[in-house]
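Input chain follows. Return C-alpha coordinates only.
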Amino acid sequence: MRNVGLRMAAMACGMAVLCLCTPLELPVCAFRGLTGRLCPLCGLTHAIFALAKGHFGEAMHWHALSPLAVLLLVGVLWNAPRMARVWMPSLVVFTAYGVLRIVAG
Protein backbone atom coordinates (compact mmCIF):
# COMPACT_ATOMS: atom_id res chain seq x y z
CA MET A 1 0.00 0.00 0.00
CA ARG A 2 2.90 2.34 0.72
CA ASN A 3 4.14 1.88 -2.85
CA VAL A 4 0.81 3.09 -4.26
CA GLY A 5 0.94 6.18 -2.07
CA LEU A 6 4.45 7.02 -3.25
CA ARG A 7 3.43 6.63 -6.89
CA MET A 8 0.38 8.83 -6.45
CA ALA A 9 2.49 11.46 -4.66
CA ALA A 10 5.06 11.38 -7.48
CA MET A 11 2.35 11.82 -10.12
CA ALA A 12 0.76 14.68 -8.14
CA CYS A 13 4.14 16.42 -7.89
CA GLY A 14 4.72 15.92 -11.59
CA MET A 15 1.33 17.39 -12.47
CA ALA A 16 1.98 20.37 -10.18
CA VAL A 17 5.29 21.06 -11.90
CA LEU A 18 3.65 20.81 -15.33
CA CYS A 19 0.84 23.16 -14.28
CA LEU A 20 3.16 25.76 -12.80
CA CYS A 21 5.82 25.74 -15.49
CA THR A 22 5.79 26.52 -19.16
CA PRO A 23 7.90 24.64 -21.67
CA LEU A 24 11.27 26.15 -22.43
CA GLU A 25 11.95 27.37 -25.91
CA LEU A 26 14.23 24.59 -26.98
CA PRO A 27 16.09 24.59 -30.28
CA VAL A 28 14.44 23.00 -33.28
CA CYS A 29 14.86 19.23 -33.39
CA ALA A 30 17.63 17.77 -35.53
CA PHE A 31 15.18 16.01 -37.86
CA ARG A 32 13.30 19.23 -38.54
CA GLY A 33 16.58 21.12 -38.93
CA LEU A 34 17.84 18.65 -41.54
CA THR A 35 14.64 17.99 -43.47
CA GLY A 36 12.45 21.01 -42.81
CA ARG A 37 9.57 18.67 -41.93
CA LEU A 38 7.90 17.93 -38.62
CA CYS A 39 9.17 14.83 -36.89
CA PRO A 40 6.74 12.37 -35.25
CA LEU A 41 7.36 13.91 -31.82
CA CYS A 42 7.51 17.64 -32.69
CA GLY A 43 5.22 19.61 -30.40
CA LEU A 44 4.68 16.81 -27.90
CA THR A 45 6.28 18.68 -25.00
CA HIS A 46 4.12 21.75 -25.61
CA ALA A 47 1.06 19.50 -25.94
CA ILE A 48 1.70 17.73 -22.63
CA PHE A 49 2.13 21.06 -20.83
CA ALA A 50 -1.14 22.26 -22.40
CA LEU A 51 -2.95 19.08 -21.30
CA ALA A 52 -1.66 19.51 -17.76
CA LYS A 53 -3.23 22.96 -17.71
CA GLY A 54 -6.51 21.66 -19.13
CA HIS A 55 -6.13 23.25 -22.59
CA PHE A 56 -7.24 20.27 -24.67
CA GLY A 57 -7.66 22.19 -27.94
CA GLU A 58 -4.22 23.73 -27.67
CA ALA A 59 -2.74 20.31 -26.92
CA MET A 60 -4.38 18.85 -30.01
CA HIS A 61 -3.00 21.75 -32.04
CA TRP A 62 0.54 20.94 -30.93
CA HIS A 63 0.31 17.15 -31.26
CA ALA A 64 -2.78 15.06 -31.99
CA LEU A 65 -1.51 12.04 -30.04
CA SER A 66 -0.71 13.91 -26.83
CA PRO A 67 -3.54 12.25 -24.82
CA LEU A 68 -2.15 8.85 -25.79
CA ALA A 69 1.34 9.99 -24.80
CA VAL A 70 0.04 11.07 -21.38
CA LEU A 71 -1.69 7.69 -20.97
CA LEU A 72 1.59 5.94 -21.75
CA LEU A 73 3.49 8.19 -19.36
CA VAL A 74 1.05 7.44 -16.55
CA GLY A 75 1.35 3.74 -17.39
CA VAL A 76 5.13 3.93 -17.05
CA LEU A 77 4.86 5.70 -13.71
CA TRP A 78 2.13 3.43 -12.43
CA ASN A 79 3.76 0.26 -13.79
CA ALA A 80 0.41 -1.39 -14.36
CA PRO A 81 0.63 -4.86 -15.94
CA ARG A 82 -2.39 -4.03 -18.10
CA MET A 83 -0.43 -1.24 -19.77
CA ALA A 84 1.83 -3.82 -21.42
CA ARG A 85 -0.96 -4.55 -23.90
CA VAL A 86 -1.12 -0.89 -24.92
CA TRP A 87 2.53 -0.42 -25.91
CA MET A 88 2.61 -2.21 -29.27
CA PRO A 89 -0.63 -0.70 -30.66
CA SER A 90 0.54 2.72 -29.43
CA LEU A 91 3.86 2.29 -31.19
CA VAL A 92 2.01 1.46 -34.41
CA VAL A 93 -0.22 4.53 -34.03
CA PHE A 94 2.72 6.84 -33.31
CA THR A 95 4.61 5.40 -36.30
CA ALA A 96 1.67 5.87 -38.68
CA TYR A 97 1.07 9.41 -37.39
CA GLY A 98 4.76 10.19 -37.73
CA VAL A 99 4.86 9.00 -41.33
CA LEU A 100 1.78 11.11 -42.12
CA ARG A 101 3.40 14.18 -40.53
CA ILE A 102 6.60 13.65 -42.50
CA VAL A 103 4.81 13.11 -45.81
CA ALA A 104 2.29 15.94 -45.33
CA GLY A 105 5.09 18.14 -43.97
